[in-house]
DNA sequence: CCCTTTGCTGTAACCGGTTTCAAGCAAAGT
DNA sequence: ACTTTGCTTGAAACCGGTTACAGCAAAGGG
């Protein structure tokens, strides 16, 4: 474990100045071939690598980007989302040599400080915010600090912030229309958290489907959850206990859908037979579930990649006037958890 | 979006020197009450926060720790593991103001460079390595660079590296003995990846259980997978296609167990009735599965916390001679996927 | 042959903090 | 009145890079 070398020492060993070593390191021009060769030799000999923190200070670029994860209220399903998203964004970031700093927190105020330190401490060049809400306080921190932001989900209230999104309204509408056309009259909608921009859009889609097919929406059938298995399970149980059996369920996540199905099963109600359930996400084992789950697929991995691309573009191009965004289409995957009523 | 303030400007505005502002910021002594008050006032007025990169350079501490995730070969199950672990370690890290840098990569060599830059770029104070293998190359990078490492799983070949682990051998043994005592003779063991230290230990437990009860181990019944649903599913299918129906399955992850159960179901074989399946992990919805899964619980969240604690301890205490480690016990959770044969 | 241009290199300032050290000054001791 | 002590403060060096600028030698042009 020999001590870490500095550019100064390399310069001395190669008989040149720091400036020249720096030029060699960054492939700048203006270095004679023989000097370059000599410096490179010394660098290789001592397997020197520059200190990235010092470089960051000098360049005012850290090479890190922050991934701001909604604080832990939203549980497993958003976690599966998170994982896929992480894979996607990592893929493009480390292709370009960027590091990823993940901010999570257990409590609301720890989360607050964590965001602040990221915004103001100068430790990230840009951030991606997951699970954005309308007028999200977090965004203000970053914008005020002049840090580029890309949100996942359209950032309501921030008309100039870049984002990636999936066509939530469209996806929800297609799923709901599908259920309505199957003859279901009472479609229980287990939505995501209230205020979540994705929840808002999906609710819009649910309502539009009803309007398009000239049905009334019963407000009691719209319930907010947190994407979790438990929220799907509990919601259906609450309905069953009250003796109200919805003929179909549209859940805002596959896990919630699985929870709903489990609750039906426990009550002896056969899903895909007596009632229909549609999920959202198409997580990898949705098609292994019993029954295989009809669901709305969203390309999470691709969204991660695109978020990374947009952020990097913004970092390179500087702050152009135009908003960069991309909205991905969804796809209804019909399996066996749905049936004509 | 007013420009970021520096300590110099605050000093000027407060009519003092940088040094004094620094002392106030870090609650050092040797500042008169009134000066302190005045400086704090200016700091609050401009809501100044110090640049953490500069501080890092000066202190030779970055306040970041790296989480090195096995590259993406291992899929969803390790991902669930990853999420829980991440929650745990985040909890202790941001309680202490540390940031978490996650290193993943799509390809093996990107992964390599990602590790190197983390080891040598001076961007992290310490790292936690997930999914450690015997003689893991990654560890060498970090150790050579003098960066404290905590591994998850006992780091075979590195007798002085700190680690957290779960009693894999014990857990596997208890599960296997349980199955043997239920009268199962042919227990298919769907292990994790070959070379994984956890896989090695679990296989040891599987063998010990057989030895303790005076049974022979049939080598063909030990199969390596990658913790995924698919690996469980495919493995059982391969057996069934060949006409060999194991009377029980012990899988190294809950997802693999669920895959196995699904394969049995498709073949019309009732799990928890004709055959038994035991998983490993006790992921949150294991008890909602059909049938509810008998499994070996490991306290992943706690392991994350402990890994964080050990790493922070090591960072503070410097490099003491003793190895720090903690091995967590497992617990067999009996549900309905197992039955007397 | 002299002047300009070109190419290579080093000096020094800078990024924004922390810390050592010495100086200034008031209170206390003799 | 003079030294000692203790507290407060600022100047300057340092962390390890990047870069503007200037110097200098060799090459090119008239």
Summarize the structure in short.
By secondary structure, chain A is an alpha/beta fold. Chain A is built from twelve helices and twelve strands. In chain A, the strands form two sheets. Chain A has a six-stranded parallel β-sheet with strand order 2-1-3-4-5-11, with helices on both faces. In chain A, strands 7-6-8-9-10-12 form a six-stranded mixed β-sheet, sandwiched between helices.
Explain what the structure shows:
2 copies of one chain form a homodimer. Chain A has 341 residues and is an alpha/beta fold. Chain A has 3 domains: 7-50, lambda repressor-like DNA-binding domains (434 Repressor (Amino-terminal Domain), Orthogonal Bundle), CATH 1.10.260; 64-166 and 300-326, 3-Layer(aba) Sandwich (Rossmann fold); 168-298, Response regulator (Rossmann fold, 3-Layer(aba) Sandwich). Helix content of chain A is 45%, strand content 15%. Chain A has helices spanning 7-14, 18-25, 33-45, 52-59, 76-95, 108-120, 137-144, 168-181, 197-212, 229-241, 254-266, 300-317, and strands spanning 64-68, 99-103, 126-129, 149-152, 162-166, 187-191, 222-224, 248-251, 276-281, 294-297, 325-328, 331-333. In chain A, the strands form 2 sheets. In chain A, strands 2-1-3-4-5-11 form a 6-stranded parallel sheet, sandwiched between helices. In chain A, strands 7-6-8-9-10-12 form a 6-stranded mixed sheet, sandwiched between helices. Chain A is elongated. Chain A starts with 6 loop residues before the first helix and ends in an 8-residue tail after the last strand. The relative contact order of chain A is 0.12. The mean pLDDT of chain A is 91. The interface between A and B is large, with 59 and 59 residues. Strand 2 of chain A pairs antiparallel with strand 2 (99-103) of chain B. Chain B binds a DNA duplex (30 and 30 nucleotides) through residues 6-8, 16-23, 25-26, 28-32, 35, 50-60, 122.
